[in-house]
């Protein structure tokens, strides 16, 4: 079984943001001293990084699901939750990342290209982590002084991506099966590819590192390249992508073949035809040289066979007339390998300089627009008033008569994720945000009426509810009576005496006022008693009172 994997589908998910805390600070003599709930931590992101230490995508075939850690929940005492660590996934240099398209449960095929990690250290955030929810201390303001709710953390981004490896080598060896490409790599480098005397021995691209003086370069072979490979015949289409990043194309031609319809010139022309057809469908990266314009070199192999060496000497002038350097070698006897090695090193140095020049020119001419901030990391919007670009509303209808209005947009969908629908105050806060954004006005303009079904978002994360534009948004007391704006607590209102801390002077004044009031009451009671308004309890004034303690009342039978 081969351990080389150059295409794999990976399911990535960013970490979920931690929920905010709705904590309340409590102090002596203050049962409610104000909100102190901290913010939730942000979730980690899934990041692919190009690394020279990675040589294959094999790890992602056996572990295709990668999830970043989530953030922790905020705590009381204004303690924010911890942020989830980013999940760094190393991939080989030359890895291209695509969106994965296809039905659920079926093999995926590449869609839009997302990133091209060509150089060491190139990074791509495949799944951003969700932002942590705000605690109630962050939601408090002049009109909402005691929020009894906090925002939930946002869910991390989740999707399928396809990783496709396009080997980055300086020299690509192309040729018919059994032409000696793997043997050449083994003779010029320390690579140990599988070598046998039958066609299609090499089933995966082989890489080898070659040193020539002060120059160090890599060579790779493209296995299974035969006529018709660009249309999917044989194995060539599967591995032709590995020739896209090479700087020099070296034709390895078997001069000892016994097939009657083959000769070195026809083999070269057949392979060039396949390369030209394949190059027509390529989108080359920045600064890359088109395949037809890349320098060629012809390697006539198997010169250790007398008939093959004679044929090589015969066809060599033909290739030199076409302006290509031609070398006669033998991987068995190592004849001509030294000259070939230094010739390739010289061509590699020249091409590296040319490519660096093209990349710098293209980079200078390209306009780069950087966003002010990442959309998924925004803590809160400074202005929640929306425009037509912030959301869209569409009227949906099924054949059975079901009608609903679908609200989509970054802000409404994010706000719905942050709302705890078990908390009436949080739901009222969401209603206020949507109204300020202009969602309710747009629903009326679209013809929505009270009781119609409204769906915010789409897919599994959509939230559906019946629209009630008359709902009172705000905090409500336990008996259902709304006493003020959302988050207003009487114990925090400076206008209320219960929230006012008296000074010593105020306490003394109130004490003297109370004592003066008591003395005035005693004087008034004594004056009424002296005036005869009070009866002596020891005298039975009412003979008809049956409940009298001293008399039995008149008319009572003994």
UniProtKB/TrEMBL annotation:
The keyword Transport is annotated on this UniProt entry: no
A single cellular component GO annotation: cytoplasm
InterPro entries: G_OBG, GTP-bd, GTP-bd_Obg/CgtA, GTP-bd_prot_GTP1/OBG_C_sf, GTP1-OBG_CS, GTP1_OBG_dom, GTP1_OBG_dom_sf, OBG_GTPase
Coiled-coil segments: none
Domain of life of the source: Bacteria
The EC number(s) this enzyme carries: 3.6.5.-
Record keyword Magnesium present: yes
Residues that hold Mg(2+) according to the record: 182, 202
Subcellular location, record wording: Cytoplasm
Main location: cytoplasm
GO molecular function, one term: magnesium ion binding
Keywords of the record: Cytoplasm, GTP-binding, Hydrolase, Magnesium, Metal-binding, Nucleotide-binding
Residue span(s) of domain OCT: 383-469
Residues binding GTP: 175-182, 200-204, 221-224, 301-304, 330-332
Region (Disordered): 493-512, 528-558
Primary enzyme class: hydrolase
GO BP: ribosome biogenesis
HAMAP family: GTPase_Obg
Function comment: An essential GTPase which binds GTP, GDP and possibly (p)ppGpp with moderate affinity, with high nucleotide exchange rates and a fairly low GTP hydrolysis rate. Plays a role in control of the cell cycle, stress response, ribosome biogenesis and in those bacteria that undergo differentiation, in morphogenesis control.
Family stated for the protein in its record: Belongs to the TRAFAC class OBG-HflX-like GTPase superfamily. OBG GTPase family.
Assembly notes: Monomer.
Name of the protein: GTPase Obg
Organism for this UniProt entry: Bifidobacterium angulatum DSM 20098 = JCM 7096
């Amino acid at each position: 079984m081969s351990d080389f994997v150059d295409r794999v589908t990976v399911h990535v998910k960013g970490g979920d943001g931690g929920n905010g805390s709705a904590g309340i600070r409590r102090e002596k003599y203050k049962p409610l001293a104000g909100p102190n709930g901290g913010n939730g931590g942000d979730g980690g992101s899934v990041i692919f990084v190009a690394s020279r230490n990675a040589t294959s995508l094999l790890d992602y075939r056996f572990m295709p699901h990668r999830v970043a850690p989530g953030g922790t929940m905020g705590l009381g005492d204004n303690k924010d939750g911890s942020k989830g660590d980013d999940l760094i996934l190393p991939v080989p240099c030359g890895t291209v990342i695509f969106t994965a398209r296809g039905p659920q449960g079926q093999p995926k095929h590449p869609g839009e290209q997302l990133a091209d990690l060509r150089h060491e250290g190139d990074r791509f955030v495949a799944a951003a982590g969700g932002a942590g929810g705000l605690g109630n201390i962050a939601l408090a303001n002049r009109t909402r002084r005691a929020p009894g709710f906090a925002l939930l953390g946002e869910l991390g981004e989740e999707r399928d991506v396809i990783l496709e490896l396009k080997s980055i080598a300086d020299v690509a060896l192309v040729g018919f099966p059994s032409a000696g490409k793997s043997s050449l790599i083994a003779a010029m480098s320390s690579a140990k590819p599988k070598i046998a005397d039958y066609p299609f021995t090499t089933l995966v691209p082989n890489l080898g590192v070659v040193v020539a003086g002060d120059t160090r370069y890599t060579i790779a072979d493209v296995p299974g390249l035969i006529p018709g490979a660009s249309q999917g015949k044989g194995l060539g289409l599967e591995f032709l992508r590995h020739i896209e990043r090479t700087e020099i194309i070296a034709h390895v031609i078997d001069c000892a073949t016994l097939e009657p319809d083959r000769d070195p010139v026809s083999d070269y022309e057949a392979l060039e035809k396949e390369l030209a057809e394949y190059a027509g469908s390529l989108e080359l990266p920045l600064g890359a040289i088109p395949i037809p314009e890349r320098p060629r070199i012809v390697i006539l192999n198997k010169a250790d066979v007398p008939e093959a060496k004679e044929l090589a000497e015969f066809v060599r002038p033909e290739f030199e007339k076409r302006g290509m350097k031609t070398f006669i070698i033998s991987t068995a006897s190592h004849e001509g390998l030294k000259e070939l090695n230094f010739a390739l090193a010289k061509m590699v140095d020249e091409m590296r300089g040319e490519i660096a020049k093209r990349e710098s020119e293209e980079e200078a001419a390209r306009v780069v627009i950087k966003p002010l901030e990442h959309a998924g990391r925004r803590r809160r919007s400074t202005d929640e008033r929306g425009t037509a670009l912030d959301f869209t509303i569409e009227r949906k209808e099924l054949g059975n008569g079901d009608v609903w209005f679908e609200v989509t947009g970054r802000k409404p969908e994010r706000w719905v994720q942050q709302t705890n629908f078990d908390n009436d105050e949080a739901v009222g806060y969401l209603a206020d945000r949507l109204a300020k954004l202009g969602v309710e006005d747009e629903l009326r303009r679209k013809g929505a009426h009270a009781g119609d079904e409204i769906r915010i978002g789409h897919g599994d994360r959509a939230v559906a509810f019946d629209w009630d534009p008359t709902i009172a948004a705000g905090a409500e007391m336990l008996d259902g009576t709304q006493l003020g704006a959302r988050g207003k607590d009487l114990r925090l209102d400076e206008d209320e005496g219960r929230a006012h801390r008296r000074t010593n002077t105020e306490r003394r004044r109130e004490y003297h006022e109370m004592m003066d009031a008591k003395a005035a009451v005693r004087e008034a009671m004594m004056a009424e008693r002296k005036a005869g308004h009070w009866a002596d309890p020891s005298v039975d004034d009412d003979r008809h009172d049956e409940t009298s303690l001293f008399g039995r009342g008149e008319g009572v039978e003994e």
